[in-house]
């Protein structure tokens, strides 16, 4: 069983974004379709997020793979059998160990009901998840997108989004990143996640470092 399902965005969402935002239209046209990869295991997704905090993608993946090798299956019961020393041996700090153990305990005690999150509104999901030690606003927002597949999530504090947005709209660093996203994302309502995925992809593909603006990228790649 694949741990992620690739779900394409509705063409209506892409059309709506393109109609409302000329710069986003250029980015969508340049990149084509980008599916949303949705995780199938809520508990494992949250554990992975906790372990990967403040790490590069490569480092996070390496540590998580080592962590997985300690267990037959990543479950709350299995996580709680691991000592801090064992977790430290695969690169998980004492602080992060406390995060994943708090999550495991709250899931087992049913203080956090992961199987009911899909029925909750975005803000209720965020409130539930941030009751867990080590899970903040950003982690909860990423869960909404990459585990629940919500297409109306705007993560104002995401550094990657801010970087992509400054590049696409040619915004100087003098403007606060959150305020910039709040201002520009008014054109994306309600398709915030769709726009976010294209901005993240612009960063991931190196557009923001290799090209001074979207028009230069279009000229070079088309």
From TrEMBL:
Keywords: DNA damage, DNA repair. InterPro entries: Alkylbase_DNA_Glycosylase/TA, DNA_glycosylase, HhH-GPD_domain. Belongs to the alkylbase DNA glycosidase AlkA family. SMART domains: ENDO3c. Its EC number is 3.2.2.21. Signal peptide: none annotated. PANTHER family: DNA-3-METHYLADENINE GLYCOSYLASE (PTHR43003). GO terms for molecular function: alkylated DNA binding; DNA-3-methyladenine glycosylase activity; DNA-7-methylguanine glycosylase activity. Residues 51-208 form the HhH-GPD domain. This is DNA-3-methyladenine glycosylase II. GO terms for biological process: base-excision repair, AP site formation; DNA alkylation repair. It catalyses: Hydrolysis of alkylated DNA, releasing 3-methyladenine, 3-methylguanine, 7-methylguanine and 7-methyladenine. Pfam families: HhH-GPD. It is an enzyme of class 3 (hydrolase). The keyword DNA repair applies. GO terms for cellular component: cytoplasm; protein-DNA complex.
């Amino acid at each position: 069983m694949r741990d992620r399902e690739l779900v394409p965005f509705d063409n209506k969402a892409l059309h709506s974004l393109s109609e409302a935002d000329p710069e986003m239209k250029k980015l969508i046209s340049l990149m084509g379709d980008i599916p949303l990869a949705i995780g199938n295991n809520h508990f494992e997704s949250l554990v992975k997020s906790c372990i990967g905090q403040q790490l590069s993608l490569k480092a996070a993946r390496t540590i998580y793979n080592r962590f997985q090798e300690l267990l037959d299956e990543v479950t709350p019961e299995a996580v709680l059998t691991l000592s801090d020393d064992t977790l430290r041996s695969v690169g998980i700090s004492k602080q992060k160990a406390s995060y994943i153990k708090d999550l495991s305990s709250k899931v087992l005690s049913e203080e956090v009901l992961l199987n009911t999150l899909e029925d909750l509104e975005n803000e209720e999901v965020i409130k539930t998840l941030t009751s867990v030690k080590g899970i903040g606003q950003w982690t909860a927002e990423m869960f909404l997108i990459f585990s629940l597949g919500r297409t109306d999530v705007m993560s104002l504090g995401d550094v990657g989004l801010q970087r992509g947005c400054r590049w696409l709209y040619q915004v100087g660093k003098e403007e606060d990143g959150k305020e910039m996203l709040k201002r520009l994302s008014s054109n994306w309502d309600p398709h915030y996640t769709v726009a976010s995925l294209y901005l993240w992809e612009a960063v991931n593909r190196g557009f923001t470092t290799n090209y001074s603006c979207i028009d230069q990228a279009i000229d070079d790649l088309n």
